[in-house]
């Protein structure tokens, strides 16, 4: 392409992008007539029935029909997309599939606004939070913002009670099945995501707080980043070998994966995994279990608390270092139809150049997905390496394993722990997991867009279930030793789950020394 024509193209593409942002934001203000909203409800339900492989797992067809019909009867007035979202999403949440959720419609920001935000610090994201019932607490303030003390309760934001927001947002989320531990963890993580989606990006907020019986009001502002802040961010973005292998996350200045020995004689190894991201994980596990093997460790603690899941291939690889015998991680993954893998919106939200590249690669994608399913006993299944027999790795760990879990252990974390519990390969310590014991629907998604409100509805395509004897409880993986961490434990920097494990290991060591 000639340079002049290329520059003209970039200008046109940039202007088109700006127009699309403006058009999208204008649509968010438009009130949609009731009949069109009802059409969106019907569209959403029809796509769910067509694509979701286990729609009536936790709710009967009759009950779900009633929920959708009842919703349509309430749609008597025009609504904006956001107002409609707050009506439809609770019905979607009632299906009780933790991966299934509408994308909340919110104002789209321009490249100029993004650049402006990149030069400022977060306003709410710099705190750590804890939810107890309808109450929201700050439990971490690393930057000592306004000298707000950990343990401070936020009573209101801009004079609106926090409890109102919590009750409103709680209706929008669901765990897998009838789990009892997931909500407070997930809600505290997404609370301000919902808040910003409703209110937009603001530069200030007034917090009314309560700490040790004393009420205080704080003005939060979106502060400019200093030169040192920008310099540190630039340094953090550099991908060293250590950052790659441990999967460094610049936003939180932390690692997804970490490993250490917990005692001087290397008897006890400890692996913490915050997310099964898949990035460089094979090298991490190879190096880690090589060190554990060389040290001759007798105990291994795997910490997957607050791990929302991720790569199925990663947990399959990890389990090959934990199972002394050949195993099959999951059962064959069921799909709704042979065409399901092709309903993944291949060209979704692609810019010009990615669109061109995807167009060139589409034939390979089409044939790959077409031959990725097979039919057995009248049902369709998706071919997956994790449902094949896997052999243990050379450095497989054969000692005793403890796994730390809580209500925020979800998706792939639950698949892994359900398998380990079924195989009696580990002692699970903590809380019931947020993800179901008997599997979940995820894998990859079919991204549907409701025609009138333009709200996105990603629908999981694969029924992924661990290769176990199912419990039928419709709940999470239940720990062998139940221990719940309290807010006071967090404030006092105590870890009751880890304390129990270390005490148990010490007792076993002492018993062995007697003989």
Automatic annotation (TrEMBL):
The entry lists its GO molecular-function terms as: endopeptidase activity; serine-type peptidase activity
Q: Where is the Tail specific protease domain?
A: 238-484
List the GO cellular component terms. Answer: outer membrane-bounded periplasmic space
Pfam families, alphabetically?
Answer: Peptidase_S41
Alphabetized InterPro entries for the sequence = ClpP/crotonase-like_dom_sf, Tail-specific_protease
| PANTHER family to which the protein is assigned, alphabetical | CARBOXYL-TERMINAL-PROCESSING PEPTIDASE 3, CHLOROPLASTIC (PTHR32060:SF22), TAIL-SPECIFIC PROTEASE (PTHR32060)
Q: What's this protein's name?
A: Peptidase S41
């Amino acid at each position: 392409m000639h340079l002049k024509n290329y520059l003209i193209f970039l200008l046109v593409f940039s202007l088109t992008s700006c127009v699309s942002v403006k058009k999208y934001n204008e649509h968010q203000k438009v009130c949609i007539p009731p009949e069109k909203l009802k059409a969106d409800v019907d569209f959403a339900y029809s796509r769910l029935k067509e694509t979701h492989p286990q729609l009536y797992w936790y709710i009967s067809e009759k009950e779900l029909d009633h929920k959708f019909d009842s919703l349509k009867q309430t749609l008597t007035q025009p609504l904006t997309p956001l107002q409609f979202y707050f009506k439809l999403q609770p019905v979607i949440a009632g299906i009780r599939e933790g991966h299934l959720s509408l994308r909340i419609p919110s104002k789209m920001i321009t490249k100029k606004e993004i650049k402006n935000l990149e030069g400022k610090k977060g306003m709410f994201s710099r705190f750590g939070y804890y939810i107890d019932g309808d109450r929201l607490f700050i439990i971490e303030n690393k930057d000592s913002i306004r000298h707000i003390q950990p343990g401070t309760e936020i009573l209101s934001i801009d004079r609106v009670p926090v409890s109102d927001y919590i009750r409103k947002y709680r209706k929008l989320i669901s765990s897998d099945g009838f789990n009892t531990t997931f909500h407070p963890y997930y809600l505290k993580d997404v609370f301000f995501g919902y808040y910003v989606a409703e209110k937009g990006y603001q530069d200030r907020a007034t917090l009314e707080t309560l700490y040790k019986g004393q009420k205080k009001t704080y003005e939060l502002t979106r502060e400019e980043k200093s030169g040192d802040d920008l310099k540190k961010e630039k340094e953090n973005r550099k991908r060293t070998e250590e950052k790659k292998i441990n999967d460094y996350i610049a936003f939180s200045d932390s690692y997804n994966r970490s490993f250490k020995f917990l005692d001087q004689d290397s008897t006890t190894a400890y692996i913490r995994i915050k997310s099964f991201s898949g990035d460089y994980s094979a090298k991490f596990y190879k190096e880690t279990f090589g060190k554990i093997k060389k040290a001759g460790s007798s105990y291994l603690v795997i910490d997957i608390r607050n791990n929302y899941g991720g790569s199925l291939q990663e947990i399959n690889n990890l389990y090959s270092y934990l199972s002394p015998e050949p195993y099959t991680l999951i059962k064959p993954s069921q799909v709704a139809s042979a065409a399901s893998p092709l309903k993944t919106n291949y060209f979704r939200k692609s810019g010009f150049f990615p669109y061109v590249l995807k167009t060139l690669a589409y034939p390979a994608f089409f044939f790959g997905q077409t031959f990725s399913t097979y039919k057995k006993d009248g049902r369709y299944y998706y071919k997956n390496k994790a449902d094949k027999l896997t052999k243990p790795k050379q450095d497989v760990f054969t000692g005793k394993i403890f796994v730390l879990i809580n209500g925020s252990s979800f998706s792939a974390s639950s698949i892994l722990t359900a398998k380990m519990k079924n195989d009696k390969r580990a002692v699970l310590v903590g809380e019931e997991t947020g993800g179901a014991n008997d599997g979940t629907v995820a894998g990859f998604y079919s991204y549907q867009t409701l025609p009138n409100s333009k709200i996105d509805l990603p629908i999981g395509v694969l029924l992924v279930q661990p290769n176990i004897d199912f419990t039928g409880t419709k709940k999470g993986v239940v720990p062998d030793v139940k221990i719940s961490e309290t807010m006071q434990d967090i404030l006092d920097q105590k870890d009751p789950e880890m304390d129990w494990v270390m005490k148990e290991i010490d007792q076993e060591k002492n018993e062995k020394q007697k003989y």
